[in-house]
Amino acid sequence: MKTPKILFKYSWIYDQNWKEWIKNYKTKNLKYPSTKKVLNYTVKVEKIWRNYEKNILSELSRITGLKWKEDFIYCYVVGNCRPFSNPLTMPVYNDKGYFVDTLIHELIHQLFTQEGNMKQTTEAWKYINRKYRNETVRTRTHIPLHAILSYIYIIFFDEKRLKRDIISKSFFYDYKRAWQIVQQEGYQNIIHEFIKRIK
């Protein structure tokens, strides 16, 4: 089964833009990590990630029936930002395990949006949007994602790691609500109902 290689990259210009943004918009006077710290950190998290990369990416493809279309996915690591999937961008976290967990989260978003996969998942997303029409768009987007992430935690890590993620997102309404729905309905049920509608 084809899986992409995650290529960790550093862009000084990109990092400096985030540094300026943090300085201008964050209320706390946070110390932004230096270039050297970001580069050293990237080397460390890459080593950790390589232990899981092939198995986790293969399992994400297997469980969803969606194929990875790209051979490489660039992951930009910056001193501080809100992580997001495209371009895949990750901040420095104190906990390197949390970096891996967040990277998996963003890669599930990536899998959903790989070429052709959005078309394949049209009916699945229609089902989610119809069933959870009273929830916010962000909550609806994260219901199947959190269900799949729950499965990955159980298979590759443990429930403690899953609970940590749930707690860490409890300060953000949309993510908290998505986790509540996954816990109430069961991640297996949500995955089943979602993937059976993937063409």
What is the gist of this entry?
By secondary structure, the chain is an alpha/beta fold.
- Low-pLDDT segments, ≥5 res: none
SSE-based structural type? alpha/beta
The largest pleated sheet is described as:
4 strands, mixed
Shape category: globular
Integer-rounded radius of gyration: 17 Å
How do the strands of the widest beta sheet line up side by side? 1-2-4-3
Mean pLDDT: 95
Total helix count? 10
Count the domains: 2
Strand and helix order: EHHHEEEHHHHHHH
Query: Roughly how much helix do the residues carry, as a percent range?
Result: 55-70%
Number of strands: 4
Proportion of strand residues: 5-15%
Task: State the separation between the terminal residues, measured CA to CA.
Answer: 19 Å
Which key terms come to mind for this protein?
199 residues; alpha/beta; 2 domains; 4 strands
Verbal overview:
The protein is built from ten helices and four strands; from the N terminus they run βαααβββααααααα. A hairpin with a 2-residue loop joins β3 and β4. It has helices at residues 12-25, 35-50, 53-64, 96-113, 117-120, 122-131, 137-156, 159-168, 173-185, 187-195; strands spanning 5-9, 72-78, 84-85, 88-91. The protein has a four-stranded mixed sheet, with helices on both faces. It has two domains: 5-113, no CATH class; 121-195, no CATH class.
